[in-house]
Amino acid sequence: MDFYIVDAFTDKPFGGNTAGVVLYNNCDEELMQKVASELKFSETAFIKQLSADTFYIRYFTPNSEIALCGHATIASFHVLKYLNLVHNNKIYILKTNSEFLSVEIQNDNIFMETSIPKSGVCLENASITALAKAMGIENHDIGDLDFYLKPEIISTGLYDIMLPVKTSHILNSMKPDFKALEHLSKILEVVGVHAFTINSSEYTANCRNFAPLYLINEECATGTSNASLTYYLYKNNVIKDFNRKYIFRQGEAMNRPSNILTKLIVSNNIQILVGGTASIISKGQLLL
């Protein structure tokens, strides 16, 4: 089986978020999990081509399978483009274990459709206090300076807590208690926390993402989480424009800066596209 190591949401090697990408014809779930555990990237994608325009992708963290992963999808379609299996200015079908989504190649950018946005609960006082303690911040650090934002659980494929903080200094100085955050994530039934500040003149938001429940203490680019954040900001009247690019900056705290692009579009329901560029840094074969 051919495999690739790809940095997604960056156009330069050694930036963005790294994913393993494996192309296969026959590979069972047990072997996929063993390969993902061996490669140790936050996610490894396993691609099987079903037809000229349809690709089945399964996503594995080092310890479990998940339904969808934005950066691993961008990495996967970058590899497919490298192999001339997909082409510019065309739309392809992504089959996951739970749904079919579209992926559009727009020159250097790859945009994937995310799942229909779903709102979970807005956190109440006790949960907010537990969240602040787990994140190593104070209750009064949570929120923003203009829009009265509050923590809320949102999904565009995976449920995360959207956690607004008031300044970049608060965001950058976070030192979470990962055991406490893992416990809270189990209780609230979320993947993790997507912390952000809109106190930025250059980007729509600056972000950090934490998912210790899935053995990912911090992740430098999370496509589905930023799609969820796009919906959250739309719900709260922070952003309003459709069919324009929003830019989210993530990974600076890990010295792996990432630019994640999103778009709001309207069909029957509000839909979020998430995308960006990628860079292949290695390729090889799994001798299995």
From TrEMBL:
One of the Pfam families matching this protein, by short name = PhzC-PhzF
The record's listing under InterPro entries reads: Phenazine_PhzF-like (IPR003719)
User: What are the record keywords, sorted?
Assistant: Isomerase
Where would one find the signal peptide in this protein?
none
Q: Is Isomerase a UniProt keyword of this protein?
A: yes
Q: Which family does it belong to?
A: Belongs to the PhzF family.
Q: What is this protein called?
A: PhzF family phenazine biosynthesis protein
